[in-house]
Amino acid sequence: MRNFHFHGSRILKTGIAIFLTAIICEWFNWPPVFAVITAIVTIEPTVSDSIKKGIIRFPASAIGSAYAVLFIALFGNSPITYTLAAVFTILTCYKLKLHAGLLVATLTAVAMVEVIHSNYLISFFIRLGTTTIGLLVSTAVNMIVFRPDYRNDISESIQSIGSRAGSILEQTFRTILYDENKDRKIDGVIIHQLNKEILKTETLIRFQKDDSKLHPFIGGDAKELLMTERQLLYLHNLDYHIGNLIYLPLNIISWSKSERDIIMYAVTELANDLHHAADYSSEKHQLQLKNITDLFWEDNEELTKNNEIHPTQFPPELIILYELVTIYNLVDRFYNLDCTTQLIKVEPI
Known about the structure:
Blueprint (H helix, E strand, L loop, with lengths): L1 H26 L5 H10 L4 H29 L3 H17 L6 H14 L4 H25 L6 H28 L6 H28 L3 H4 L2 H25 L10 H19 L6 H24 L10 H20 L14
Helix pairs in contact: 1-2, 1-6, 2-5, 2-6, 3-4, 3-5, 3-6, 4-5, 7-8, 7-10, 7-11, 8-10, 10-13, 11-12, 12-13
């Protein structure tokens, strides 16, 4: 549903921009095709991007128009004119680092070859005028019609990511504790998909931050946006530590069944916290964390005292408990945000 809303509004805005651009060009008795091309490629996910790229596309279009007029004057309407106009436009845009305007500039250059037969200088300025109309109309439509507001999408994505992370965490520990021989390649694919969802949400947050500068009322409270960004960073770290568990090479784990059940119960409670944010209890969370921490220190003394199986590295039991304690702390911070806390972003393996 979110994707339909996102793409549907952009399609509608593109249609409105094309219609208004064509009407204005007809009013000036200018050919609308060049303005329409510009309007189509200028509708961006954010108003900020539309303005920034529009500033680049205008000079790029001027370059394409200039080359088209030059080569039409030299070679007329011929294959070499199309070729030279396109190639020189691309080379010049690359040289001047006008990458965002390269497409519209090249399309303008080759399209002009077909329609210009005389009055080259006037045609050049008409092309600049139509390009300007396309840029201004598309930017205005993007700003006024369905103004970009991604707050609901961001909130839904964060809830979805948290819930999926809880499911993956619970599934991972069931495999570790009760089915050590299971092939965990599928789990690796799932964690990769979760990471992709996190990256998409990061993009939405960037869009919202960019447009909040132009639309302070639509952009919402800056503190709220900062807290949302920090929540996503905690989820990013959570994704990283779950990945560590999935890719951890497991040998024989020495835990008794009662110890495994204690750990699994703590993981199930943690997964429920991620599934149902409204039911989160800090006191219950801290109690479960204490049980895991106590078990960690008990295993730490016992396993490291006589570590013949893993003499040069930590036993897998300690690594698993360490990751679980870390995840518990991340979830606690996720629900008890402190905007003064500095986060270190880690990249998933």
